[in-house]
Amino acid sequence: MGSVGLKWDPPLPGEDCVDHYIVETRENEYIVNATGDKLQYIWSNLTLCQHQIFSIQSASSQGSLSKPALIYTTSGAWAPGEVTEPEVTQTGSHSLHLEWKRPLELFDCLVMYSVCWKETNKTDSACVEQKLEQYPKRTLYGLKSCTEYTITLATLGVGKLHGNGTTLTQFTGI
Prior knowledge:
The chain is built from no helices and 13 strands. The chain has strands spanning 2-7, 20-24, 29-32, 40-46, 51-59, 69-74, 84-91, 96-101, 110-119, 125-130, 137-140, 148-157, 166-171. The strands form four sheets. The protein has a four-stranded antiparallel β-sheet, with no helix packed on it. A four-stranded antiparallel β-sheet has the order 10-9-12-13, with no helix packed on it. The protein has a three-stranded antiparallel β-sheet with strand order 7-8-11, with no helix packed on it.
């Protein structure tokens, strides 16, 4: 489960009229008796990697409400784990075909994959983002023949957080 910490400033003008704050999502509403510099609330037990919209309103002792302030966030936006079982399944003179499986941890946070490659011992690299598929794969074209390439497969989570990359090396064919 994830959590989100919300922090806000009092309304100006009108801070003296605030009795309490109402913090809510679509499913739940909480009254927060927050004053001074303690205007914060930690929302716990949220589904990981789920987009959330929070509404915060100030309320007077007579029940008058301010316009809601909306906060958009993602709960527990951690990077997913590493891809599993990466392998080069076909080698051509100018191409490499890659296949892998989704990560075993935090795969609910997975949004897409990043595939990067470069000639081994060189610095210039290229990357593409790969959409989610049941059986993820990518063919790299336009490579030099008889050349060793270093390929890094990374997972991308919500907010483009990168998981640790998994690296392979492979020679192209003649």
